[in-house]
Amino acid sequence: MKTPLAVAGINFEEASFKNFENIGGYDMYARANIFNEYLDFLDERGHLNYRMEAVSGCGPEMEVLIPGKSKPQTMVGLVSNDYLGFTQHPKVKAAVIEAVQQYGTGAGASPAIGGHFSFHQRLEEKIAQFFKRDSAILYTTGYTANSATFQCLLQKEDIAILDMAVHASVFEGCQLTNVKRFPHNNLEMLELVLKQTKGKYRNRMVIIDGVYSQDGDLAPLDKILELTKSYGAYLAIDDAHGTGVIGKTGRGVLELYDLFDQVDLITGTFSKTFAHLGGYIVGNPELIRFLKFQSRQHLFSATSSPAAAGIIKAIELLDEEPHWQSQLWGNIDYFKKGLLELGFDVGATQSAIIPVKIGDPKKTGEAGRLLLEYGVYSNPIIYPAVSKNDARIRMSLMATHTREQLDKTLNAFADVDRKMGIVNKS
To answer: Which of 13, 260, 330, 419 could join 132 in a cystine, given CB atoms 3.0 to 4.6 angstroms apart?
Structure first.
């Protein structure tokens, strides 16, 4: 039986996941049932290419179980933020194996009461030194690093001033404080908010990304820092997508502008360039020590497993084997040039995140389906992850992608355009 086109007044043809967050008058089971009908609706059209099961590790090529197929399909993988390919690096794997053999498979406790091991201590020191600072705190995920830290530091007497495009974890972390948003990278509006809020709050913290996760564009960090400090506010930067990619030695947007010691908080994740899982905050020693005993998610969560020792080797590899970053940028430049020559809109990306902007969400879903048929595994991104008319195919490039794989993807996009008319020919 085919899924209906509308339930509870929600038109499935026009809906997004946002419509199902809180359907008025329905309890949690009814809401879940309605949402499942919507998922079935997407699945019947081949537009539910989320949570697909991969049977190989993340990499430039992946074995994926595609809905409707009986066996895994070999796909060009453009969905992993493993920018330098370090999840498969033999030295990183060896470091993980050695640590597990020495310490076992788990930490068994939270950091305050027995779960802080020597590899955690070395990792804190290593990531702080990487950013030319003295102190760092570890969290079990990059998401938690943001949500937990801002919950701890910003209370009802304070205000967070957020670029509208910051990560969802930042918005969650600011639920206990006052919030003002400014349009993405709009310095005039940022200054207006700083003027309006001056003298009205105990702490004012501007929070930005270094590289933005959907468009791949960069924050004008120098100008934002100058504005923030001139109005007596603090500045935090999440450079999860810039680390390993941007800057001469991969130290991100901070290195690009040489402002390591000027930013109050540096946040990031180990799940991208550093090839594992976890998050970190780097900052003032007293502030970091405060977080270690006051940030509840850190204090009451079990620490990362001994496999986190592989992160230490990944950090070292950025300096020991700089050719990976050079190889990544060769791929970025080649692929971006190819898409532009085909007429696609890749926006203002300056990083390893390459969007192909389509606009219409239904067209984007269909493009994602066709790309899967061509053997290209990418991410269709629609509202609320982006604005309603800014749907796109989002791709992450890796240093380990081959030119053959990139050419296969470019050819697939050319064929998709011939079928769907994505590129505006006028």
So the answer is: 260
| Contact present, 43 and 52 (Cβ < 8 Å) | no
74 φ, ψ to 5°?
A: -80, 120
- Span 55-72, average pLDDT: 93
Q: What's the one-letter identity of residue 110?
A: S
Tokens in use for 235? 């500045």
Quick check: 317 and 327 in contact, CB under 8 A?
no
- The angle, 0 to 180 degrees and rounded to 10, between the axes of the packed helices 403-420 and 323-342 is 20
Q: At CA 282, angle to CA 279 and CA 288, rounded to 5?
A: 100
Contacts of residue 24, defined as CB under 8 A and 6 or more positions apart, other chains included, come to none
Cα–Cα dist 371/209, whole Å: 30
pLDDT in tens, 266-293: 999 999 999 999 999 999 999 999 999 9
Residue 260 CA: distances (Å) to CA of 63, 226, 228, 378 = 40, 14, 15, 34
What is the CB-side half-sphere exposure of residue 284 using CA atoms within 13 A? 9
Report which of 361, 375, 384 is spatially closest to residue 416, judged by C-alpha positions.
Answer: 375
What is the spatial distance between Cα 278 and Cα 281, in angstroms, rounded to a whole number? 11
CA gap 139, 143 in Å, rounded: 9
Q: Is the pLDDT of residue 381 over 90?
A: yes
Interatomic CA distance for residues 248 and 301, integer angstroms:
35
CA distances from 38 to 172, 229, 361, 365, 373 (A): 26, 47, 15, 14, 23
Closest to 75 in 3D by CA, of 54, 50, 46, 44? 54
Q: Are 79 and 401 in contact (CB under 8 A)?
A: no
Cα angle for residues 323, 324, 328 (degrees, 5° grid): 115
